[in-house]
Design a protein that fits this description.
The chain is α/β, with parallel strands linked by helices. The protein contains 16 helices and 15 strands. The longest helix is centred in the first third of the chain and has 16 residues.
Length: 397
Amino acid sequence: MLRKAVLLPILITLLLAPAVIAQDDGKPTVAFLKWGDSRNVALAEKAILDMLESYGLINGDERAMLDEERSFEGENLNFIYGDALFDRMEANAIIDKAIDRGADVLVTFTTQMTQITYYAIHEFIDPPKLIFTVTSGPYITGVADSSCIKPDFVIGTVPVTNYEDIVPLLLLQDPNMQVVGAIYSPAQRASEVGVARITAIGESLGLTVEAESIMATPDLYQAVDNLANRGAEAIIIPIFTFQGFQLLLSLSYDYGLPVVFSAPQNAYRGGTIGGGFFGLYKQGAIAGNMLIAYLNGDIDIAKTSIYESDDFAFAVNLDAADLQDVEISQALLDGAAYIVEDGQTAQGVTADYPEVDITLPDMPLEERRAADLALLAELECTPNIIAEQQAALDAAE
């Protein structure tokens, strides 16, 4: 295992650290911890597995087991697989299971799972490494302060959602739009921050933003009805993980309201327009790079920056628009990365993996390794970078 020994009295260790069922085979143990299945997670997860397979750390049979979400003791690595199914109690249960089985690295997907995992382990004397991906809110949830000012055991990739690019899509669809509804959850910090940004940007563009909060899926009935009664001409959803996706779409058909989601992938799920970060496969590949480099001893996570990127694109679903009796503007059609019509796209994007580029570049392993290490070298947290980020944080306070 890669866990460092903690030279403290046994009594203190028992009081402060979790019980661990240590692996005795000398192989590192990696835990995949998911908040729930989504297209965003599927893209990043595929990329990490592609990376592990390309480096020979998992074989074809082991890849098949991971594709089936199964835990196993492998030839080079042991894997623990956990899915919280969008439930906080289950999330804590799978984290405890991973810790009890001696996980050296916890790979988390989404802001929710990353936040829960971080707070479950951050007071441990020697916590396992935490590598997160598809996590838009590590800074607003307390997991890190900035890309280089963070706990020594934390690293990951952040897809930056620029609402400045998303909100104008409403006016690109209808230049005469005046009122837009927004739905968020006060239980999810990222969605709270998102709706605040949407409101401010909307007002700067001459839009009135009416916001409705929900705590559970059934709340959508009243939320959508309230927005319709307040004159909303469309609904916009900030970064937000919830299980009421299909109900929201059904209500949008009933009320004839187009729905704009803050992720292009959601256009393939039935959203009228999806705009936002477009590069989740790439995020997963970089998280896989971090995992492999750590396992190989090539990087010090404490001195390596969180990777941030803000690649933007939007997609359109004509099937949803038809059900809502909405005509998509030519401006949106001309700028879309892909268009869903009759359940498919002409751009080769699929429902399971809704991005254009979802394979690793074809290259010899040594060339790949050199390129991957070169990227990580660019993420070094130098004293100057740390000082600059701390100054910016101090100024913001």
